[in-house]
Design brief:
Layout lengths: L15 E6 L4 H5 L1 H10 L3 E5 L12 E3 L4 H5 L4 E2 L1 E6 L2 E7 L1 E2 H8 L11 E2 L2 E2 L8 H8 L17 H7 L13 H8 L9 E5 L4 E4 H11 L6 H11 L6 H6 L5 E7 L2 H4 L14 H16 L23 E4 L12 H4 L8 E14 L6 H13 L10 E5 L1 H9 L4 H8 L4 E2 L1 H4 L28 E2 L7 E4 L7 E7 L10 E4 L3
Helix pairs in contact: 5-7, 7-8, 8-9, 8-12, 9-12
Amino acid sequence: MAASSSNVGRPLLPEGLVAIVKRDCPTCVDVVPVLEEISLRGPGITVYTQDDPAFPDSVGSRVYDEDLEISWHYEVETVPTLMFIQDGKEMARTVGWSRSDWEALTGVSDLGLELSEMRPGCGSLSVDPNLTDALALKFGATTLKSRRVEIATLEDEFDALFDRGWSDGLPVVPPTEERVARMLEGTTRRSDEVVAVVPPVLNECTVEKVAVNAVMAGCKPEYLPVVLAAVEAACTDQFNIHGLLCTLWFSGPIVIVNGPIRSRIGMNVDKNALGQGNRANSTIGRALQLVIRNVGGGKPGIGGIDRSALGAPSKVGWCFAEDEENLPDGWPPLSVSRGFAKDEDTVTLFAGHGPVGCIDQISRSPESLVRTLAQQLQCVGNRKLPGEAMIVMTPEHMNVFSAAGWSKEKFYEELEPLLEMDPELSARGAMGIEEGIPISGDEETVFGSSSGRTIRKLPEWSPMIVRAGGGAGGFSAILEGWVPGSKGSTPITRRIEP
C-alpha cells in the first residue's frame, strides 16, 4: 500500500473509502460483489467509474469520472484502485484485488470468499497512451500561450504548414497542443521564460516558442535543453546570427554538443556522424533554424533576409557531437578547450558549411599528416585570403598524432607556422589573380597584418578541433567558416541548462 501526503491542486474526494474502476476490466467486474459487501457490511464506499456511468449498477454511490479528472489527479495507473481518504488526504491505497489488503483497508473481514486470494488489475484509462498527452494538457500546470491556428476539415495538415510558410522545405510535424505540452516536459524552465530576442525581426522567443519549433523539427522532449542553449547562443552579438543570415556566403550555424547529454539523448559520434540516420543529430540543428525562420523571420527567397548566393545543408540544420570517450591523453574535448568542465553539457556554435574532405591514407608520422591538414586549410575560401575553419578529425588521423606523443597543444604549435601566408603571393594581382589581400589604400587588412609581414590564414581561435567518425578511414573533414571576428561571427560555447 502507498500513502499520498497531500491533495494540493487536486479535486477533493469524499471522506472514507473510494474505489476507481472501469467496466472493461475483468478484475473490476469480479470485485463488484466485494463493493456491494463493503456498502452493506462496512463503512460504505464511493465508486468512480471511468468508462460506463452505469457500472457497477448495484452500487448506489457511483460517480462517472467521464473526463478522467479524478483518475489523472490521483495518479491512478491500475484499476481497480481502492483508497482511504481522511481530512481531505489520501492515507492509503491498494491496486488490483488482494483479499488481505482490501480487508485491512476496509476493516471488513471475509471479503470476496468466492474469489481467488489475489488478481492483478488492468491499466487505467488515465494512462492510455492515446489519452495521456491530452489529459496532461487539460489538467497539468502547463498553459500554452501561442496562437492557435485552425486547420480546415478538408485541408491536409502537412500541406497547410507548407502553405503558411512555416517549413524549411521539408515536411514538419504539426505542433498540436498535446505535442507541445509533451515537448515542454523536457525542460524545467518556465514555458513563458524569454530565451532570446531573435533577429532579424527581433521578436522575443519564449521556451514555449522554441518547443513549438522543436516539435516541428521532429525533436524528442529530451532534446529541448540542447535546442534552448543553441537558440541562446545563436542570438548573441558574438555569434551574430543576423549577419550570418544577411551574408551572400554559404554558411549557417553548426551545433557541436559536448558532455554526458550526448549519451543520454543517443547522439551519434561514430560512423556517419556528420550525416543522416540519427534523430538527435538530424533534428536539433533543424529546430534552431526553424526558430530563426518562424520566430525571427529569417527566411530565404523573394523578400526574405537570407540572401545566401548558394546556401548549404547547414542552412537546413547541422548538429553533431564529439566522441569524447575515445579522445587520447592530451586532447581535451572541445568544451574543455573552451573553458568548461569535462562533465558539463555544452553546445558550441560555429558559423560554417561543408564538409570539405581531407584525405591522407599514407602518412604515419605526425610531421607528414599535419602538413596534409595545413595544405587543405590553406585552401579554405580562397588560397589568397584569410578565412576560418574547423577540423573534424577522425580516429585514424588523430591516432597518428597521439601515438607519436603529440598533444593538442603540440599539434597547434606545429600547425601555426604552416598556415602563414606570403603577403606577396596573397596580394591582389599576384599569380595573375585579381582577387587577394589589398597591399595599400584605405581597405583594412584582416588579422592586423601589413605588407612585408606574414599573414595568418586563420584567426587565433581557429581551427577548432573535434573528434568524431568511424575508426577506419584516413579522412578528416574541414568545415569552412564565414568571416571571423567583429565583422562576422565568433564561435560561442554555452552551458546546457536542464
